[in-house]
Design goal:
Blueprint lengths: L3 E4 L1 E6 L12 H10 L2 E6 L10 H14 L3 E7 L8 H4 L5 E7 L12 H10 L6 E4 L3 H13 L3 E3 L5 H12 L4 E5 L1 H5 L4 H5 L12 H12 L5 E2 L8 H4 L17 H10 L5 H16 L8 E4 L4 E3 L18 E3 L2 E6 L2 E2 L2
Parallel strand pairs: 2-3, 3-4, 4-5, 5-6, 6-7, 7-8, 8-9
Antiparallel strand pairs: 1-10, 10-13, 11-12, 13-14
Helix pairs in contact: 4-5, 6-9
Bound molecules: N-carbamoyl-L-aspartate and zinc ion (ZN) (2 copies).
The site of one zinc ion has 5 residues, from loops.
Length: 342
């Protein structure tokens, strides 16, 4: 056994559900899950039950997180297109790292479908902090064009289709300021998983084909995709497996399995150890301008195999779509600013 040290990892896309849905997760359980997964800095999404679209709601989240979070946490501000006058109040807040726009149906009530509203948002977010988009297929084409028109920095969340990898590759080739993230579930499952796992394999964007998945791995290797984001989206089992006739909630937890899945990719010869650090630390830090965390690191043995259990996770939802899989490099210690926190 040989332990290695890595920097505390950064996850730029998590949903900790507080306030509003703390039966799924809260700042304490979610940040414990982050540490267990090797993350010392996480960025929380605004699609709470009451969306985080005013400075006041943002301040409420920040103060709740200060009381309860055991790792460092920042926030993405939300928009429904009607709150652009709030942007001035939040864009220089050091706890705000980006503006999130939802262009497709998913968990939460912030969908913007109207092109005029979308333009208004791109025009109003006058900041070097990225605009993050949930934009699938045609919506990605639209948001890339708007980011170019208004000279905004764009981060495309959870890309999942081959055509999207190609769009990003083309935009980068033309020097557009765009970055892209991919989620472990899209790298490891295809839509075939849904017949067996039912609601537990349902998320937005949905799982794709084998061809999509191959394109995602290729995009990771050639730098088209910049980072891994867990899109940790906890829902309790009853919400994922509702009584007959119910629609399962979209989203899967991921904070505690992301690093192990990336070391599995190293073990399988898909990526290198250096890639793991680039995708989960260096690039997220650079793209979202995450502050330094002095004397902060994690320890693990990248060659040590472990099996993802059925339960006993830190996340309050206490399940994983990866249960039963053999992963590598379970986090054994986390030191945050000189203090051992795991
Ligand atoms: C996310 C959630 O549950 O908040 N769900 C999901 O399926 N990914 C929302 C999102 O990231 O789109
Ligand atoms: Zn999304
Ligand atoms: Zn998400």
């Amino acid at each position: 056994m040989s332990l290695i040290k890595l920097p505390g990892l950064i996850d730029v896309h998590v949903h900790l559900r507080e306030p509003g849905a703390t039966h799924k997760e809260d700042f304490y359980t979610g940040s414990r899950a982050a540490l267990a997964g090797g993350f010392t800095y996480i960025l929380d999404m605004p699609n709470n039950l009451i969306p985080t679209i005013t400075a006041e709601l943002l301040e409420e989240k920040i103060s709740l997180s200060k009381e309860k979070s055991v790792c460092d946490i920042g926030f993405h501000f939300g928009t429904n297109g009607e709150n652009t006058e709030e942007f001035e109040k939040v864009k220089n807040n050091p706890k705000v790292f980006g503006l999130k726009i939802y262009c497709n149906h998913t968990t939460g009530e912030m969908l913007i479908e109207n092109l005029e509203l979308l333009e208004k948002v791109f025009s109003a977010w006058d900041s070097p902090k990225p605009i993050l988009v949930h934009a699938e297929g045609e919506q990605l084409v639209t948001t890339l064009a708007l980011a170019l028109k208004y000279e905004r920095v764009l981060h495309v969340c959870h890309i999942s289709q081959k055509s999207e990898v190609e769009l990003i590759r083309k935009a980068k080739a033309s020097s557009q300021k765009v970055s892209a993230g991919v989620c472990p579930h899209h790298l490891y499952f295809t839509k075939d998983a849904v017949s067996k796992m039912k609601g537990y394999a349902m998320m937005k964007p949905p799982l794709g084909t084998q061809e999509d998945q191959d394109a995602l791995w290729a995009g990771l290797s050639d730098g088209t995709i910049d980072l891994i984001e867990s899109d940790h989206a906890p829902h309790v089992k009853l919400e994922k497996n509702p009584p007959a006739g119910g629609q399962p909630a979209f989203g899967v937890p991921g904070l505690e399995t992301t690093l192990g899945l990336m070391f599995k990719a190293v073990h399988d010869g898909r990526i290198s150890k250096e890639d793991v650090v680039r995708l989960l630390y260096t690039n997220p830090k650079k793209i979202f301008n995450i502050p330094d965390q002095p004397d902060t690191y994690i320890e693990l043995d990248p060659d040590l195999a472990y099996v993802v259990p059925q339960k006993g996770f830190e996340t309050k939802c206490d399940w994983s779509p990866f249960s039963g899989m053999t992963l590598y490099g379970k986090v054994q210690a986390v030191v945050l600013r000189g203090k051992k926190v795991l």
